[in-house]
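Q: Can I see a sequence and its folded structure?
A: Here is a first one.
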Amino acid sequence: MRWVAAVGGGAFVLASLAVGFRLLLLAARTRAVPETTLGLGLGLMGGFAYPLTSVARQAEALTDEIRTWLMIAAHVLMVVGIGCIAIFTWQVFRPESRAARSGVAGIVAALIGCFVWQGISPGYMAGALAKEGMAIVGINALAAVAMGWTAIESLHFATQLRRRIPLGLAEPRVARQVALWGTAASAATLITFVTLTLHFMGMDPSTSTVGALAIGPLGLIAAISLSRAFGILRPARATPAYTAD
């Protein structure tokens, strides 16, 4: 059943790369924080960190040293990507909130702490050999927190937009795009939750049947929703609204 997880996971990686690249091209013109942080977050975390982690753990033909460096690189990208997603959510949905700002600072500090902790004990070689410590588990849990937060905010905002449509105060297309992004983020959050749950049950998410049957479909949902939200599968006629005023 590994092919099921590979198809769903591969689709999500490709969608993350495509959307991330598109947003960074937009950010090059606008110089705006939302496009920059979301583009970096998707590209680094979904497009590069996840595949590098898989290669580090499964490419047994490589030397332990190479696999260790791949694991380090993957988690550098993961830490930066998660931080960018958290900043995106704060800036778009709660820019004036001190609690949100403090929450982002806490997430970033915890990410850095977990990264250093893993390096000290048990080390990134252990992570590459699928003997990861609680620090890597902590990084994955923080990824779920960041993605879950942006999912909740996006779906809530989409609901608000739908209520404004009959009054002519919002565009149906924009409401759909925001809802699709919220759906993609929700599916990504569930993937991380399933991965963490299987880890604590002593199962390998990449090889277990349960993991494949959960991660594969969720990966496809995330990939399709993400691609539609940002005009990859169906060219968007409008740019999603990056304000939740």
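Q: Show me another, different protein.
A: A second, unrelated one:
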Amino acid sequence: MIILKAISKSYGAVTAVKRVDLAVPGGCIYGIIGRSGAGKSSLLRVMSLLETPDTGEVYYNDQRVDTLRGRALLEQRRKMGMIFQNFNLLGSRNAAGNIAYPLEIAGLTRKQIEKRLDELLELVDIADKRKARLRELSGGQKQRVAIARALAANPEVLFCDEATSSLDPQTTRSILALIRDLQQRLKITVVLITHQMEVIREICHEVAVLDEGIIVERGSVTEVFESPQAAATREMIHA
């Protein structure tokens, strides 16, 4: 379980996240939705320990982690995977090279890396693209490479930051189906940031609605969609 207590984060004069309390159950797909500028990515960066909150506390399974530094912080980050809207792949490497990168950093042997690569390429259904250069891959295939890379070190949590926003509807559905399948097979927690209501409806178990840095509504996807209480939620549903 991930627990945030009174998290605030500012950038200069702009307060992006305002005293957010949130509990993400382990082993679920949790969505955080809001319009552009609502503070979603800022909250995700704090939750994934890429940034330190100005105030508040972050806990993973009852252990406070926002105060970790040095090797302890690196070890905690290795328990997390991250995928992004723009893939963040290395243009100088082919598909396998991109997936292998975190394994190389972790110090695995070439034999260990090759074995893990075989597993990961099969897992995301692009075994035939092992040697493909990035320019030879479609957007959906690039995202599969990015997902495989995020899973390389067997993370406990997979963070998805607008991971389907740049994809066409059909590819979006296939990537969401893949994430749902991986979550069930690997028993990991997925935290998904999006501005797309259809993504929340398709894949998430629970959802929190963020508006101007504040969580204005939370609950099961069914509850929130069938009986939205906050104006921001109703606006997104009926947009």
